[in-house]
Write a structure and sequence with these properties.
Number of strands: 16
Strand content: 15-25%
Helix content: 25-40%
Largest sheet: 8 strands, mixed
Order of helices and strands: HEEEEEEHEEHEHHEHEHEHEHHHHEEEH
CATH architecture of the largest domain: Alpha-Beta Barrel
Structural class: alpha/beta
Number of helices: 13
Number of domains: 2
Shape: globular
Length: 428
Amino acid sequence: MKFKKLYTILFLTLSTISFAQKKNKFALINGIAHVGNGTVIENCLIVVDKDKFEMVGSIIGVKMNNLGYDTVIDLEGKHIYPGLINANNVLGLHDAFSVRATRDLQDVGYINPHVRTLIAYNTDNKIVPTIKTNGILYTQVTPRGGMICGQSSIMALEGWNWEDAELKADDGVHMNFPQYVTRSDDDKEDKGVKNYNDQLNTLNAFMKDAWAYYSSGKAEEKNLRFEAMKGVFGGDKRLYVHVDKAKDILMAINFCKAYSIKNPVLVGVKEAAKVIKDIKNSNIPVMVVRVHDLPDKADDDIDAVYKLPALLQKEGILFCLSSEGDIEMEAMNCRNLPFLAGSAVAYGLTKEEALMSISFNTAKIMGVDKKLGSLEDNKTASFVVSEGDILDMKSSIITSAYIAGKEVNLKNQQTELYLKYKTKYGIK
C-alpha cells in the first residue's frame, strides 16, 4: 500500500515537473518590439507557438483569452529584438589560438572549396556563451586562408553538437580575391604585378575547369573541388568574394559577371566609397568589415570606414556588418557586433537601419531571411529581450534570449567571475 502511494506521489511530481517545463505556446506583452525590418511596435503582443512566431503586433484591442497560450510574460516596457546574426567570423573554430591543434579555421593548400566548417564547429567553445550575452544568437562560421578558403555554414549558438546547432549547411564558398599591390621601388612593383597576374591566372584556370565540370552534367570521375563549386554556378550557394581595394573591387565585380555567378557577395570592401556607383550598378550585396577600423591609405579620411554603412544605405545597396578583424581576436571581439552598429548610427544610420544591418539584412544576404532576421509571423522564434537599447553598450542589458522558442542560458565564465568578486568585495 505504501509502495502504491509512493508511486502515485512520484507520478504526480514528475507530471508536474514535465508540465512546468513544457511551454509550447506563450505570449510576450507590453514590450517595445524592434521588428528588424525598420518597424517599431509599442505595447507589442508576440505569441510564440513551439519554435515559430504565431503572431507579432500591437496588444491594443486584442482579446488575450482567445489566444490559447500557456504562459504570459509581461515585458514591462523592455525592448525585444530579433536574434542578432554574426556574419563572416571564425567563432567556434578555435579554442586556444596559440595551440595549433585547436585551430580549425583553415586547411593546407591554396584552393579548397570542398573544405567545410560545418563539422569543425565546436559547440563547447568557451567564447560562444560570452557572445550570447550580448544578443548574438547565430553565426556564420567562416574559413580562412588560401585563395579559395572553403565553405561556411550558419549555426545557432546553442546545441550539444554541430548537428544540433546547424541552421544552414554550406551556405557559400569563400574566396580571397587577388590583391593588386604597387610599390615605389620599380623592381618590387614588377614582382608584385607578376605575382598578381600569376594568382589571377591560377584562379581563372580553376574557375574555367570548374565551370566545364558543372556544364558537363555527370562526370565519369568525381572531383571534390569541382563538386563543391556546382552550387555556386547553379545558384544554391553564395560566392563570398573577400576584397578591399577599389581596383580589386572592380575586378571582382567583372569576375563574377564573367562566370555568371548567380549569388555573389562582396566581403570587406573598405574602399567601397571610391567605386560606390559600380557596386550599386552591379546589384551585388556587401558585407562590410568592422567599422572600428582605420583606412588602409594615409590620405583617406580617418573615419572613412565608420561612414561607409551610411553611404551604402543612402545609395540603396543591400549591406550588413561583420566583425572580421585580427584573426586571433576576431572570435572574442564579435560580442561587440551590436556596438559596431551603434557606431554606424553616430555616422549617419538610423537605429532601425543599424539593427537591420546585423539582423534582417544579414539574413537576406545569406539567404535565410524566410527563417531569421526579423520578428514576423511564421519565422523562427529567435529573439532577445533587453532593458535598454541593444546598440548602446551603456544601456544594453540582455535579460533573456530564445532560440527557436526555447530560452537559452545567458550565464558564462565572465558573468560568474563578475558575481563572485562583486559579492567578495560587497559592491552594490
